[in-house]
Inverse folding.
């Protein structure tokens, strides 16, 4: 219990330093809830709605793990034949010469080398497979592709095939304000605002969920698609999403990815997973502070939530992300 208290203290300390109005920490060990911690309010007003187990945070870029599962389904059902298929076979609207040797694998592991200017012009930063860069263009490309392949939005697909069988009721792409939603803090001196989208088709950063259901999402992956004794998602789908799918890099400092998840292989300096986290662990995170960490070796799932943009501050961003996962690993190391 003392080690868990250290995790709580760390999370709350970062909340204060970063001037987030809210934090939550939810931990599953051996498929049992061992910690729930809620702190703060839905916005930066002390008379605002208190954070509870029902508070739904915008998970920002952590939504990519949901897209990743839909992509894994598309591979499993042969709607995408292979990760090594040429991207030009799927994206006729993008110049084939620009895409070059870009594959689906490159797009889902941030090794594609494509970027977009403010005017929408797509250009190439580096040759596919020769580097790693976090950009938004590949996420939008894969979202539109999966939506087209399933003839419905991937959120609709997930609701039917995954969320309903799991019993998830607090996870959705939100387009309207409601009291359960935690506001996003951009300026600590100003009132928080709802981070909503115009659409719920997965093309925008408007996925909200509770710490509880975020952890259950991690648990689905930890348990290879089994929930409540039922195989909800094929084991092979989960494995595709959470195993290392990155090309072999010459630079061993670069992060490794599954289908958008960060996956621990040989610890890498530029990875957002700390060096003390066991091999085979995987993590997803977002700019507003959500982190979902799964450590299969310890049978642990940790969901951490904040609601402040640019957590941890500037150059310290990577250090604190790595440090949190290291502290979790230290807590559960046998």
């Amino acid at each position: 219990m003392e080690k868990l208290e250290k995790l709580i203290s760390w999370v709350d300390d970062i909340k204060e330093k970063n001037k987030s109005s809210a934090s939550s920490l939810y931990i599953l060990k051996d498929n049992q809830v061992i910690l729930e911690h809620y702190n703060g309010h839905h916005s930066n007003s002390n008379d605002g709605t208190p954070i509870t187990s029902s508070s739904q945070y915008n998970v920002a870029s952590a939504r990519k793990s949901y897209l990743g599962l839909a992509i894994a389904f598309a591979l499993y059902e042969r709607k995408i034949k292979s990760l090594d298929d040429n991207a030009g076979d799927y994206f006729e609207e993008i110049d084939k010469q620009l895409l070059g040797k870009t594959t689906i694998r490159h797009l889902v592991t941030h090794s594609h080398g494509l970027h977009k200017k403010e005017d929408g012009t797509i250009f190439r930063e580096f040759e596919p497979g020769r580097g790693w860069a976090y950009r938004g263009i590949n996420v939008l490309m894969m979202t539109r592709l999966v939506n087209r392949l399933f003839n419905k939005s991937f959120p609709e697909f997930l609701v039917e095939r995954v969320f309903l069988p799991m019993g998830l009721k607090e996870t959705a792409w939100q387009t309207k304000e409601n009291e359960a939603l935690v506001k996003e803090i951009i300026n600590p001196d100003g009132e928080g605002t709802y981070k909503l989208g115009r659409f719920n088709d997965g093309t925008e950063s408007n996925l909200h969920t509770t710490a509880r259901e975020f952890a259950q999402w991690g648990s689905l992956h930890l348990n290879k698609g089994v929930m409540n004794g039922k195989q909800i998602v094929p084991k092979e789908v989960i494995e595709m999403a959470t195993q290392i799918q990155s090309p072999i890099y010459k630079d061993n400092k670069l992060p490794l990815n599954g289908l958008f998840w960060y996956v621990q292989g040989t610890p890498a300096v530029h990875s957002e997973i700390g060096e003390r986290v066991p091999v085979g662990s995987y993590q997803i995170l977002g700019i507003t502070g959500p982190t979902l960490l799964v450590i299969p070796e310890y049978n642990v799932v940790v969901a951490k939530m904040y609601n402040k943009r640019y957590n941890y501050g500037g150059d310290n961003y990577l250090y604190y992300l790595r440090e949190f996962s290291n502290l979790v690993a230290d807590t559960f190391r046998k």
Summary: The chain is about 30% helix and 15% strand. The longest strand covers residues 32-40. The two ends are 15 Å apart (CA to CA).
